[in-house]
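Figure 2 data, in text form.
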Amino acid sequence: MSKQVIILGAGYAGLRALHELQKGAADLKITLVDRNAYHYEATDLHEVAAGTQTKDKISYPISDVVKASCTTFIQGTVDKIDPDNQTVLLEDGQVLTYDYLVVALGFVSESFGIPGVEEYALQMVDVATAEQIHQHIEEQMKTYKETKDPELLKIVVCGAGFTGIELLGAFVEGRKHFAELAGVEPAAIELYCVEAVTRLLPMFSEKLADYGIQRLEKWGVKFLTGKPIKEIKPDTVVYQEDKETGAVTELKAKTIIWTTGVSGSRVVGASGFEAKRGRVMVNPDLTAPAHENVYIVGDCSAVMDMASNRPYPTTAQISLKMGEQAGRNIKAQLKGKATEPFTFHSLGSVCSIGNTHAFGEVGKTEVKGYPASFIKKAIMDRSLLETGGVKEVMAKGRFDFYH
């Protein structure tokens, strides 16, 4: 009798697990569940938010990668997992039963309990919210043409992590378009970044991180570092100006975007898994504690890096590897073989600041400027290949290496 495998989430980890399981899956019946009918490259959301890429360029139909002979795709939203009874409940009431489960439900924005974030700041967690940011900014620019309110020209990014920096770079790229809508010079579009710490981008050397920040500053981005955000009010970011006195300052702007951090899907904790910020500290083979048939991967998973004694940061690169390993381990279990522990060796990381400029590390080599941008696009194409295959690379790949 065929074994039932359910994959929850069609992001990097989920689709990579699907590809691995669909290879030689004669004894498997796979069900893939996702709330969208399409997969999107989450690492490209900042470009959609800035309007430098369309949503169609960074997404493709999930049906393109589903083998109907062994896989059924259900478009639905997961409500809860019952690992003891091996069932998954969807919001529409459907109950799915599994022998093996891959939880790859992705991330949600993390407010850290700061008042007003969910009410008054724009989130960037999926294609829809990225599009909302772009539409919102365009509306502010058009309104400025009528009212001349200077706050309409201000864009504040809360958080100077990897996502925030890439978003700021994309806004620099899109500033000319915004200025045309507002009827002003590009320099009139004010870009701010508010961040609690002073040492930015700790995944890079201090020299390399400074290079990226200084480039953005040269292009007009104003960084307010060492300024913890205390509250978001309507059209206002309230941040601590002085640590000693606790004095706060207000920054007024009509566009406030929250990128300070993410947590794993809330479904994980609601389903009884022991989670911190939506992430489960999994066993070495990526299974959930006490559930050897449940694999938790991607943004919902915490895997210890023995070298640093800290969990690996969640990236597309590690999510792809985790999905692949989960698929292999399930196939090993089906054959009565032992699972293998997950191992990860980073190939490096590159941060884009616009379409033709980036910085980062490839292996142990630091790269900057246009060469780094070339490498970044090659990395994006490789990721697309691993989730969508050759067809999607040819249709959606980044081949604009020279401009």
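Caption note: DSSP finds nine helices and 29 strands in the chain.
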